[in-house]
Protein 1
Amino acid sequence: MKILHKIKDVRNFVKEEKGKNKSIGLVPTMGFLHQGHLELVNKSLADNDITVVSIFVNPAQFGPNEDFESYPRDFNRDISLLKEKGVDCVFAPPVDEMYPENFATKVVVRGLTETLCGNKRPGHFEGVATVVTKLLNITDADRAYFGKKDYQQLKVIERFVKDLNINTKIKGIPIVREKDGLAVSSRNIYLSDDERKSALSLVKSFDVVQNLLDEGERDADVIRERVIDFISGFKNTNIDYVSIVDPETLEYKGLIEDKFLLALAVYVGKARLIDNKIF
Amino acid sequence: MKILHKIKDVRNFVKEEKGKNKSIGLVPTMGFLHQGHLELVNKSLADNDITVVSIFVNPAQFGPNEDFESYPRDFNRDISLLKEKGVDCVFAPPVDEMYPENFATKVVVRGLTETLCGNKRPGHFEGVATVVTKLLNITDADRAYFGKKDYQQLKVIERFVKDLNINTKIKGIPIVREKDGLAVSSRNIYLSDDERKSALSLVKSFDVVQNLLDEGERDADVIRERVIDFISGFKNTNIDYVSIVDPETLEYKGLIEDKFLLALAVYVGKARLIDNKIF
C-alpha cells in the first residue's frame, strides 16, 4: 500500500493506473477510522480496480469554536486497518499541501446548506465542498464514497458534483450502527459510559416517530416536539436540532404527506452526535 | 468539425479522443469571435491534438443592468471562422444545459476579485469562475486559453484552478490590437465612428504613463490623475476606473518601486471597454 503526502505523487500514481485502464475509487476520510469508514472502503474495493483513501482533518470545515485541534487522530492504527483491507493508496497531505499560502477559493452551495447542520455550523459545508472538490480533482476518481450518516453532506456533494460537472459518481452508503443501534462515529470516543447510554436516545427516537406515524399523526411539529421531549429525558443531552425535512431539498415540512427525513443533532456531553432516518 | 450542444456529447467526444492519447485544448468564448479569440485558437491548435471552442454567453457573469440580452451574437459567422481554422469541436450549449433547474453552486475567489472589475461588477467573477470550472470539467482539457485583455479574469482563473487542483494548464495570451492600437473586443461593435476615436484614449494613455515614468515620477496617484485627465479629455468617455496595482495580487500601489499593472475600464458611449499594460 502506497502512503503519499504530496498532491503530485497522487496525480502520478493515478495517472499511471488510469493509463492501464484501471478505475479509481476514492474514500475521503478525516481518519480515526471506524466500521462506517471501513464499509465505504469495502464498497470501493468491490466497485473499482484501485482504491484511494484520503486521511485529512480538514480545518476549513471546522468552526473557530469547534473541535479541530482535539479531533481524534490515530494515523498508525488507520494505516494498519487500511493495509489489512487491501487498499492501494493512502493520501495523507499536511494542511499546507492542501491550503498553501494565498489559497483563496471556495465552493459554495446555496439552499441545501442553509438548513440543519449548515444553519448551526456556518462555513462548514463550504469547507466540505471545497476540500471534496480538491480531492476529486487530485485523484480523478471514477467513484467516491460517503456515508449516509452525514446525510446533508451527501446531498451537498451530489449537488455540486452535478452542478460543476465533475466526472465522478457519488455513492451514498447506509449508516453503520453498533449492536445497540448507536451510529458509529469518530466522535463516539468522547462519550463516557453514562453518556454512551444517553447517546442511544437518538436512534431510539426513531421508534417514537414510527409509533406516532402508526397512530396516524401527520403534523410534523407535533412529531418534532415529541422527539425533543423524548431525547431531553435522557441525562446530559442538549439538542442542537430536531428537524423534519424533505429528503431531497432538505426544506422544512409542516404536514407529512410523503416520505420525509428526520435529522437529529444532539450534544451528549461534549460530543456533538448526528443521526437520521428516512420515513 | 463537430458542433455539439449537449454536455454528454462533449464528454463522449473527449473520452474517445483521450482514449487515443490525444491532448485537448479548450478555448472558452462568448462567441462573436474577433482576432483576439482567433489568436487563442491558433495557440490551442499549435499546442494540442484536439481543439474545442466553447461558445456560451454566460448569464451568470452579467449583472442585472448589464448587456446580457444585447450582447452581440453571430453563431453562423463564428462557426465558419472556426471551421476555416481547423477547430475539431464547437461546444455551444443552451443556458438550461449549463444551468438546469435547482442549480445551486458557485466558485468564489476571495481577494483577487475584490478590486478593479470585481469591485464594479459584483458577482461577475463568481459567474466566470463557475462557468470556467464547468467547462474545464466537461472538456477535461489539458490546456485552456484566455486573453490578457481580461487580465483580472486570467489571474482569477489561474488562482482557482490551482486552488481546486484542476488538472488543466492555463495559458494567458497577449492582447491583440487593431492597427491603430485599440484592443480588439466584441463590444467594439457598439462604437460609433466618433466613439471609435475616443476609444483610442485607453491605449494612448500608456504613452502618458511611460513619459511620466521616464521623467522620474514614482507617485502612483499622480500618474493615475494624469491618466484620468488625459482620457477625460476625449469626447463621450466616462471612466469606470483607472488603477495602478501589483500585477500578481492586484492590490493598490501608492508608490512605484517595481513593475505594476495599469488597468483601465472606460465607458465610451454605451460600450464598457477595458485595457491594461504591465510597466
Note: The mean pLDDT of chain A is 96.
Protein 2
Amino acid sequence: MMTGVSPDVPLSKSEYKSQMETLTLRLGELQRECYSRGIPVIVVLSGPSASGKGLLVGKLVMSLDPRGFRLHTQSSSTNDAQLHPFFWDFWRRLPPKGALGIFMDNWYRPLFHRAKRFKSATAQTDWFRRINAFERQLADSDYAFAKFYLHVSKREQKKRLKKLAADPNTSWRVTKRDLIMLKRFDRYSKNADLVLESTHTEVVPWTILPADNWRFASLTMTRTLVETMEKAVSGGTSPRAARPALTKRASKQGALRLADFDLSKSLDRDRYEKDLDRLQGKLRRLQNVAYRKRIPIALAYEGWDAAGKGGNIRRLVSGLDPRGYRVIPIAAPTGEEKSHHYLWRFWKNAPRNGHIFIFDRTWYGRVLVEKIEGFCTPVECERAYTEIVEMEQEWAKSGALIMKFWLHLSKDEQLRRFKLREKTPHKLWKITDEDWRNREKWDDYAQAVDLMLKRTNSKYAPWIVVESNCKLHARTKVLKAVVEQLEARL
Amino acid sequence: MMTGVSPDVPLSKSEYKSQMETLTLRLGELQRECYSRGIPVIVVLSGPSASGKGLLVGKLVMSLDPRGFRLHTQSSSTNDAQLHPFFWDFWRRLPPKGALGIFMDNWYRPLFHRAKRFKSATAQTDWFRRINAFERQLADSDYAFAKFYLHVSKREQKKRLKKLAADPNTSWRVTKRDLIMLKRFDRYSKNADLVLESTHTEVVPWTILPADNWRFASLTMTRTLVETMEKAVSGGTSPRAARPALTKRASKQGALRLADFDLSKSLDRDRYEKDLDRLQGKLRRLQNVAYRKRIPIALAYEGWDAAGKGGNIRRLVSGLDPRGYRVIPIAAPTGEEKSHHYLWRFWKNAPRNGHIFIFDRTWYGRVLVEKIEGFCTPVECERAYTEIVEMEQEWAKSGALIMKFWLHLSKDEQLRRFKLREKTPHKLWKITDEDWRNREKWDDYAQAVDLMLKRTNSKYAPWIVVESNCKLHARTKVLKAVVEQLEARL
C-alpha cells in the first residue's frame, strides 16, 4: 500500500517542473478522452488537517482543465446531509459521465482522525463493509477511482500547526480539535492505518503521499491519476465488467411467489368506505408522530400495467398533510439521469427525515423492464440485486421505514381494463402501444417478478404482494399494511 | 382584487362535493394537457399562520394527480439559501415544463406579517419592484401563475390560535411570533393589504380567499386554478408573447464599442512573467479576505472563438486556493436545462458567499449565439437585455462582485489561430466546423456584441473589453482588473 514512500534525495525544482510538464500534457489528453468516452473519474484526498491537502490539490488542478473538474470541500455540505442517509450527500455529488470529481470532503469523514474509539469492533468493520460496498458499486459501473492519503509525522504536524498559529492571518485555521489530535497522535495514526488497510481493495487502492516532501507527493499524485485514467480509457474489456455479483441475499423473509396469491379477494363498497375513512384517519395521526420523531418513510410501488397504482396512491395520500409527503414518478431516465449510475436518481430522492416519499415505479425497473428489454446486460442485472439490497440497507441504517408493494393482477383482468380504457374517452390517455407490447411478455415479467421477490425481500424492506383484481381490496390492503408497520415502529 | 369575497349563505356539503367533482375531473385533464404542451404552472399560497393553509392545500392536491405536482413548504429550505442571492432558493425549485409547483414557502416570505416596518418607503417599494420583476420574467416565458392569499379576521385568528394551544398535540404549533402577530394584528393587516395591492398585476393577480369559509375558499382556489390553466392552454397566441420589453437600461457607464479598442497592445514575456507572479500572489491574498468577508464573486468570460478564454482562466485561477473557486463551463443546454427558463441554469449557479464562480461562456449566449442563430425570437431576445440586467442586479443586491470580460480579437488573428490549431496535433480538438461557421457571421456577432455592451454595461456588473491579440497582455489585464476591483471593495 505504501506506494508513495519518499525518496532519500529531494527532487530539484527543475526536475519537478519538467516531469510535471509531461504529466500535465498527458492529463489534458486523458481528460478529453474520458470526456468523449463518458468515463467519470473520482479522486479522494484525505489526511489530517494542516497536512497540506490544499496545497496538493492546488498543484493537481493546475494540471487539469479547470472546466472539467469539480472540487468538493467540507464547506460545500450543509445540514441537509444530516436529514438523509449517510451516502446521500456523496451520491448526489458524484461526477456525471466524462467529468472528474475531487472529494476532499468524502465518505471517510467519520473514520479518520477519531478521538474516540468505535463502540465495538463490529461497528467499525460495519463501516468498512459499507464504504467498500459503495466504492465497489461505482467501480463496477466503470467509475475510475484514485484515493490518496497524505501522511504526516508527529514532528512535522507539530511544526505545521505552530507555524499556522503564529501567523495572525492563519491562526484561525488551528482548531481545538487539531490540538487534541496532536496530543493523541499515536492513537490517531493507529486508527488511520487500520482504516487504510481495511479499505485498500484491488479495485480501489490507496496511494499514500508523504506530506514532508510536497514535490514528490505532487508528482506521485498526478502520475497515479494519469495511470488510473489510462487504465480506464484502455479498459474496454475490463475484467471488472465480467466479475460475477456477490452472492449476497437479503435476510430470509419467507419465500413470496405470485402464484400463491388469491386474486379473487375482494371488498364491497360499503365496507370499503368505512375502512378507508378509518385507515386514512389513522395514517394521518401516525404521519404526525413520524414527523415529530423524524422517521423517514419510503413506499415503493411496482405492479402490472393497469393494476391501479395511480388510484391506490391517491387513496394513500388523500388523508395526509401534503407538506409531509412527496410522490416521485419514475419514467424512463432523462438526459442528466442517463449520465449517472442507474441508482443515482433514486439516491438523490432518498427519503428525508420525517417525510413520506412515495415512488410510483422504482429502482426495480433495473431487474424488470431493463432486464427484459435488454437495456442492461445480464451481468449488470445480476449485480443489481445486490446493489439494490445494499441501497435499501443504507436507507434502513438511517432509520428509514421501507415498504415495497407489488400490485398483482390476473392476465384476464388486465385485458378487461385495457379494453375499458380504450372505450372510455377520459381514460384513453392511460393506454399506449407499449402497454400492449409489455402484455405480450407477461410470462417473462412474471418470472422476473418472482426472482425479484425472492432475492430482494428483507425484514427492513419487505415486499407486500397486493391482490388488485379488486381495487377496493388493494387500496385498503396497502393502507392497512402501512398503518400496521408504522404502529409497530412508533 | 377581492375576487374571493365570501357568499352570505354557506355552501352545503353536497353542493361542495358535486362542484368539486366537476372541477377535479377538469383539473386532471388540464394537468395532462399542460404536461403534453410543456406549460409549467406555479401556485402561490400565502396567509398568516393558523389561517388554514395546510387544510386548503390538502383539498387542492386531492384534485391533482399526485405524480404531477411538487409542494414547497418552509421546512424544505435550508441554510444554503442564506449563502446565496434571495431568489436563488426559488429559481432552483421552479417546476420544469409541464409540471406544477405549489409554493407555500415563497418569495413573499420577507414581506407579509412583518412586525417591524421597513427602514424606508424606498426599501419597501424596492421589494415590490424586485418581486414583480421576478414574476414578470416567468409570466413572459409562459409560466401559468395563480396566487392566493388566505384572509383571516382578528376574531377568527384568535379563536384558531386558542384552539391549537388548548390541544397538547397541536400546542407546539403556536409560536411566540404568532402571539406577537395577534397583538399587532391591525398593523399586520395594513401591511398585508399594501403588499397585496403592490404585487397585484394584470399578468399575475392575487385571489383572496376567506379563511372562515373553507368550502368556499377551497372551491374558489380550485376554480381559479382551472381558469388559469385553461387560459394558459388556449393561449397559443398569448398577447404576452408580443408584449414589448421594458425599455430599461443599466446605469450609464460610458459607451463601450469594440472598434475603440487597440488590438495591437502587447506585453513581452519577461514583463509578463513578473506581472503574472505578482498579480497571482495578490489575488490569492485577496481571495482569503473575500472568503472571510463572505463576498460572492462572479467572473463572466465571453469572447471570440480562439480568443484564449481557456488559457486566460487557467492563469486567473492557478494562484488561487481551489477550495474557494469553481469554473462553470457553459455549453448548449441539456435536457433538464431545456425544460426550464433559459436563466434557470445560471441562477442555479449563482455565486455562493465567499466563493469565486467563473463562467466560461455565460447567460449572454441569449443575445449572441441564440439571437444570431434564431434559437430565440426577436421579442425574446429584446426582453433578454432587461432580464439579464435584472439578474445581475439581484446578484449584486446580495453583495456579489460581478465582472464581465469580452476577449476581443482581430479577424486576422482568429484566422491565424484557427490554422495553427489545425496544424498542431494536440490542439486539433479545439477547432470544429462550428468555429468556421461562426467566423462567417463575424459582422453579425460584432454588431450583437456592441449592442450587448451598450445595453448591459453597469456599475455593479461592468464589462471589460480585453484586447487579446496578445495573450500575455490579455491574461494580465484580466488579473489586474480583478485585483483592482477586489482591492477597491475590500
Note: Chain A touches chain B through 42 residues (CB under 8 Å).
